[in-house]
C-alpha cells in the first residue's frame, strides 16, 4: 500500500470515494465485469474483491444501496454472528436454495467461506429458451431473463435487476456457469429446451459453458429441439458412470450424426431411452439391446413388418436387459404385429393384447390404432 501513488491511495483507503467511482462506472452504463476490470487497471487488482464490487454496483443500480449505506463486506463494520457457532451457520446456509446461496455469500466473508466449502445442493437444472427470453429452473426456483430494449431484465421471485447492454442468453449462461461449477455438483436432472430457429445460438452458448465446467454428473439428460449432431456434442460432457436416462427430441438428424450418437459412451451406458421423433430406426435398432426401457414417439412415421421383426430379433429376444418398449403416434399395421409375435392370433379389433412366450421369458403385448407396447414379465 505504501508504494501506491498517493492520489490512488487516497481513493482506495476511502470507502465512500470508491463507491463514487463505482457509481461513475454505473452512470456510464459500463457492464459490471468491464467496470471492475477498468478499476483494477486504475487502482490495482487488490483494491476490492469482485463480489464486494458487484454488491455495490448492483445495489447502486437497483436502488437498494446509496453512497452512505451500511457495508456488509467491510471488515471494520461487519457484524459477526458471535452467538451462533460455525456449525449452526453451516446448517442454516445448507438449507438455502442454490440461488440464495450466492446472495448469502455476499453478506460477509464467513458466509462466503462456508458456502464455498459446501457441496452443491443443486439437483434439477433446466434451461428454457424462447425468442428473446431465457428461463433457468434450479430445483424449484425460477429465474427469468427478458430482453428490455438493449438490456436484460433479470427476475427472481419479487426481485428485479437490470443488466445494462447484455443479452438475456449471455447473462443466463454466466449464471449457469457459476452454478454448474459449484463444489460437489451431482444432478438428478439436466434439461435443455431450445426453440425453432434459435437452437444454434443456444447450442454455442451452452457448449462454451460445458467446456468451462468440464464433466457434469447427472442421472437424467433431456435435450429438446436441437439437431442430433449438436446433441451428440453436448452429451459428450456428461459422466458416463452415473447417467441412466436419455431423452432426445431432435429437430433434425442425418445418418452421420446418428452414427456418432450411438457410438457415444453416454448412449451405451444409459438404461432408459426416449426418442421423439425416432431418427433413422434402421440404423439405431442394432444399438438398443443394452437399454432396459425404450419410449419412442414416431411422429406419424411408418413402422413396417420388417421393422417390427428387427425389434423382436435384435432387442426383445437378443437383450438380457430389456424390460419395456412403448411407441406412440406410429403408422403400423396390427396384423403385422400379430404375425411377428403370434402367427396363430387373428386380428379381431383395432385394440387388443396378446401374450408372447420365447424360451423361459414371457412378454405382454398391447396394441391400439396409433401404437403398441411390449412388457417383459419379471418374477
From TrEMBL:
Q: Which residues form the F-box domain?
A: 84-124
**What are the coiled-coil residue ranges?**
none
Q: Which residues cross the membrane?
A: none
Q: Which InterPro entries match?
A: DUF38/FTH_CAE_spp, F-box_dom, FB224, Mos1_HTH
Q: Which domain of life is it from?
A: Eukaryota
Q: Name one Pfam family in it.
A: HTH_48
What protein name applies here? F-box domain-containing protein
Amino acid at each position: 500500500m505504501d508504494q501506491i501513488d498517493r492520489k490512488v491511495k487516497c481513493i482506495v483507503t476511502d470507502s465512500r470515494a470508491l463507491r463514487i467511482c463505482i457509481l461513475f462506472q454505473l452512470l456510464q452504463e459500463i457492464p459490471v465485469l468491464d467496470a471492475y476490470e477498468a478499476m483494477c487497471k486504475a487502482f490495482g487488482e487488490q483494491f476490492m474483491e469482485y463480489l464486494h464490487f458487484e454488491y455495490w454496483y448492483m445495489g447502486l443500480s437497483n436502488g437498494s444501496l446509496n453512497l452512505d449505506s451500511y457495508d456488509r463486506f467491510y471488515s471494520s463494520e461487519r457484524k459477526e454472528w458471535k452467538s451462533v457457532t460455525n456449525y449452526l451457520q453451516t446448517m442454516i446456509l445448507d438449507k438455502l436454495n442454490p440461488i440464495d446461496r450466492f446472495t448469502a455469500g455476499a453478506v460477509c466473508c464467513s458466509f462466503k467461506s462456508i458456502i464455498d466449502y459446501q457441496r452443491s445442493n443443486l439437483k434439477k437444472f433446466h434451461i428454457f429458451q424462447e425468442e428473446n427470453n431465457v428461463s433457468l429452473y434450479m430445483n424449484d426456483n425460477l429465474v427469468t431473463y427478458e430482453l428490455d430494449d438493449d438490456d436484460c431484465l433479470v427476475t427472481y421471485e419479487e426481485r428485479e435487476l437490470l443488466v445494462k447492454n447484455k443479452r438475456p442468453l449471455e447473462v443466463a449462461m454466466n449464471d449457469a456457469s457459476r452454478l454448474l461449477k459449484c463444489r460437489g455438483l451431482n444432478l438428478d436432472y439436466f434439461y435443455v429446451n431450445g426453440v425453432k430457429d434459435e437452437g444454434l445460438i443456444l447450442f454455442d452458448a451452452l457448449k462454451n459453458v460445458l467446456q468451462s465446467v468440464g464433466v457434469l454428473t447427472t442421472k437424467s439428460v433431456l435435450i429438446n429441439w436441437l439437431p442430433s449432431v449438436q446433441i451428440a456434442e453436448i452429451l459428450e460432457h456428461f459422466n458416463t458412470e452415473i447417467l441412466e436416462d436419455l431423452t432426445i427430441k431432435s429437430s433434425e438428424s442425418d445418418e452421420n450424426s446418428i452414427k456418432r450418437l450411438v457410438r457415444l459412451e453416454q448412449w451405451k451406458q444409459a438404461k432408459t431411452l426416449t426418442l421423439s421423433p425416432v431418427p433413422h430406426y434402421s440404423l439405431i435398432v442394432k444399438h438398443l439391446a443394452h437399454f432396459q426401457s425404450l419410449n419412442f414417439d414416431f411422429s406419424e412415421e411408418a413402422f413396417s413388418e420388417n421393422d417390427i421383426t428387427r425389434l423382436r430379433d435384435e432387442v426383445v429376444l437378443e437383450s438380457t436387459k430389456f424390460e419395456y418398449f412403448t411407441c406412440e403416434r406410429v403408422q403400423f399395421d396390427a396384423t403385422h404385429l400379430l404375425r411377428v409375435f403370434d402367427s396363430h392370433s387373428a386380428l379381431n379389433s383395432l385394440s387388443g393384447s396378446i401374450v408372447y412366450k420365447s424360451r423361459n421369458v414371457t412378454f405382454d403385448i398391447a396394441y391400439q390404432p396409433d401404437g403398441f407396447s411390449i412388457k417383459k414379465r419379471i418374477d
